[in-house]
Amino acid sequence: MLRIAVPNKGSLSEPAVEMLREAGYRQRRDSRELVLPDPDNDVEFFFLRPRDIAVYVGAGTVDVGITGRDLLLDSESPAVEHLPLGFARSTFRFATTAGTLSDISQIAGLRVATSYPVLVRATLAERGIEPSAVVRLDGAVESAIRLGVADVVADVVETGSTLRAAGLDVFGEALLRSEAVLARRSDVEAPAGLDVLTRRLQGVLTARQFVLMDYDCPLDLVDQAVAITPGLESPTVSPLHNREWAAVRAMVRRDQTNRVMDQLYDLGARAILVTSIHACRL
């Protein structure tokens, strides 16, 4: 069986479980379950702390795991990113007391508090910046400056409201743009079943990004309509009982749905219908 590590709690947990469910895998009903076999799909799930998942993948205890890109890079594990999963997006930034620093180079000689010491040290080293210390904290790093532990904090930022509430401002360029990823070991052959898991997850990602659009179009306008909805390879065009019209079906990006519908209607298309895609393979 393919052994898959899944976050057992936190912001990564529910979206990961939902994605796997959409991909056709069995998921636990009791949050106390730590191991869940899915013999119908020849996989076994292990529910682990998000921060530990990259370590288990790197050690070969599990074959693959879902974790954050930031956690993966901070783990110093021989695991690598196999597939970005498109959820739990965030930005990793430096922050300090409002109005004091404006550039990352100014961190030289200062104390930096973070829950991601490996990532921070590597990022600063790449830029030739040497802080006086990197202080590891397990959480609530926004309090580190007020309590005198550090001069700068480095943390994952989604909206920045927590930092602003603590009187801090982000500054300089982003260290990292993170999201959930599927991780695997880089130094071993791809495990059996990983190709199937990858295709299924990619199918979910595509289904979330696209919708299926159907519409009726006058024959003399089909070429113009197809230019608006080119689909992935090419749209399907079928004759209607009224030979002066054709039915067109194409995949359209979900975030462009209403704009495309407006363009088609203005062109002369009618009976424009949009259907969500549950699953797909490209």
From TrEMBL:
UniProt entry tagged with the keyword ATP-binding: yes
Names of required cofactors: Mg(2+)
Modes of activity regulation: Feedback inhibited by histidine.
Any one annotated GO CC term: cytoplasm
PANTHER family reported for this sequence: ATP PHOSPHORIBOSYLTRANSFERASE (PTHR21403:SF8), ATP PHOSPHORIBOSYLTRANSFERASE ATP-PRTASE (PTHR21403)
Function recorded in the entry: Catalyzes the condensation of ATP and 5-phosphoribose 1-diphosphate to form N'-(5'-phosphoribosyl)-ATP (PR-ATP). Has a crucial role in the pathway because the rate of histidine biosynthesis seems to be controlled primarily by regulation of HisG enzymatic activity.
Protein name in the entry: ATP phosphoribosyltransferase
Natural source organism: Cellulomonas gelida
Gene giving rise to this polypeptide: hisG
